[in-house]
């Protein structure tokens, strides 16, 4: 079976590559349909590593996937061949302490697609635990199903924030994750979400949604825009999604007294934090690492029509053009949000 293989830093190939594995009683076999290209896939391609995760051997990329069940293990009852599904890419040890606490995303033993040495899903077929495979309602397309993964991070951030109806939120950073967070915050009850970035094309894309306002920080500071929007009081929730040092440092200025700060963006290196600024408003700090127990909710929001992620799919490329798709992702065009790869039928 042909897969998209990261041979080493900077070198991709489409070639025969069989991922070892057998279908266990609690597993399903899935024919993959759509796979989104994620910033982490691109980072492994350009840098060969993320933090202490280093690509030492050829690795299949991709972790944002939807597809069709083609075979089920003997113990699987909630899925059947023919079901359209999307897959949660992180598989914890269900007996771990973290999993027992419901925080399986921080299980040290979690196996996550396309995180070395675990292979990803840019391959025609995958075997996956049925418990981490979710049926797509009729109303949710394969393309949207593959958006459940990045949207799940937005969902995790919205849940961490403990949004109350009518909250005003600000999102710093209009990358794909910042956009997902903004939409999840709206779905979670925010009255208004202000998105701050310096790339106008990105702001135009997310600003087209009802309930979202934008500020280009080349023209006006995020703090100024928040002050104008809230009569100087500050935002109830600040979602930091840029990972940029100045944005992290400026977070306390955006929040209202007693507000919440959710750290979503991941700075490449440690960055300074204004602790006194946080203390002076007694801000509550939350962090997000991937997600747990949000896939059902993410899919339900898409199916209900309350969250429409289709405008964020910038292009879908056939699998044969997957390498060109990755090179386009490396370009990081300001008009691209999510690029997806469609597998051969
Ligand atoms: Zn992703």
Automatic annotation (TrEMBL):
<keyword id="KW-0560">Oxidoreductase</keyword>
<protein>
    <submittedName>
        <fullName>Alcohol dehydrogenase catalytic domain-containing protein</fullName>
    </submittedName>
</protein>
<comment type="similarity">
    <text>Belongs to the zinc-containing alcohol dehydrogenase family.</text>
</comment>
<feature type="domain" description="Enoyl reductase (ER)">
    <location>
        <begin position="10"/>
        <end position="335"/>
    </location>
</feature>
<dbReference type="InterPro" id="IPR020843">
    <property type="entry name" value="ER"/>
</dbReference>
<keyword id="KW-0479">Metal-binding</keyword>
<dbReference type="GO" id="GO:0016616">
    <property type="term" value="F:oxidoreductase activity, acting on the CH-OH group of donors, NAD or NADP as acceptor"/>
</dbReference>
<dbReference type="GO" id="GO:0008270">
    <property type="term" value="F:zinc ion binding"/>
</dbReference>
<dbReference type="InterPro" id="IPR045306">
    <property type="entry name" value="SDH-like"/>
</dbReference>
<dbReference type="InterPro" id="IPR011032">
    <property type="entry name" value="GroES-like_sf"/>
</dbReference>
<dbReference type="InterPro" id="IPR013154">
    <property type="entry name" value="ADH-like_N"/>
</dbReference>
<dbReference type="Pfam" id="PF00107">
    <property type="entry name" value="ADH_zinc_N"/>
</dbReference>
<dbReference type="Pfam" id="PF08240">
    <property type="entry name" value="ADH_N"/>
</dbReference>
<dbReference type="InterPro" id="IPR013149">
    <property type="entry name" value="ADH-like_C"/>
</dbReference>
<dbReference type="InterPro" id="IPR002328">
    <property type="entry name" value="ADH_Zn_CS"/>
</dbReference>
<dbReference type="InterPro" id="IPR036291">
    <property type="entry name" value="NAD(P)-bd_dom_sf"/>
</dbReference>
<keyword id="KW-0862">Zinc</keyword>
């Amino acid at each position: 079976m042909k897969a998209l293989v990261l041979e080493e830093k900077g070198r991709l190939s489409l070639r025969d590559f069989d991922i070892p594995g057998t279908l266990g009683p609690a597993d399903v076999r899935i024919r993959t349909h759509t796979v989104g290209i994620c910033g982490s896939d691109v980072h492994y391609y350009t840098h060969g590593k993320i933090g202490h995760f280093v690509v030492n051997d050829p690795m299949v990329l991709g972790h944002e996937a939807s597809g069709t069940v083609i075979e089920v293990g003997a113990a699987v009852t909630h899925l059947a061949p023919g079901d359209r599904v999307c897959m949660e890419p992180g598989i914890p040890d269900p007996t771990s302490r973290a999993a027992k606490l419901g925080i399986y995303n921080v299980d040290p033993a979690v196996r996550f697609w396309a995180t070395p040495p675990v292979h990803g899903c840019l391959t025609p077929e995958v075997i996956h635990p049925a418990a981490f495979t979710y049926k797509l309602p009729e109303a949710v397309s394969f393309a949207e199903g593959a958006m459940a993964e990045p949207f799940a991070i937005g969902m995790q951030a919205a849940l961490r924030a403990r949004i109350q109806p009518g909250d005003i939120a600000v999102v710093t950073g209009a990358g794909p994750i910042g956009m997902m967070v903004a939409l999840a915050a709206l779905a979670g009850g925010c009255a208004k979400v202000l998105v701050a970035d310096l790339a106008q094309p990105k702001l135009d894309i997310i600003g087209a949604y009802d309930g979202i306002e934008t500020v280009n920080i080349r023209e006006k500071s995020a703090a100024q825009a928040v002050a104008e929007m809230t009569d100087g009081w500050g935002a109830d929730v600040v979602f930091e999604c840029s990972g940029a040092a100045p944005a992290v440092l400026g977070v306390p200025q955006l929040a209202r007294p007693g507000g919440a700060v959710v750290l979503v963006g991941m700075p490449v290196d440690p960055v300074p934090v204004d602790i006194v600024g946080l203390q002076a408003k007694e801000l509550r700090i939350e962090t997000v690492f991937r997600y747990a127990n949000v896939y059902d909710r993410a899919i339900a929001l898409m199916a209900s029509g309350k969250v429409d992620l289709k405008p964020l799919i910038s292009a879908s490329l056939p699998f044969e053009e997957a390498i060109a798709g990755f090179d386009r992702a490396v370009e990081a065009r300001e008009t691209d949000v999510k690029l997806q790869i469609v597998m051969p039928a």
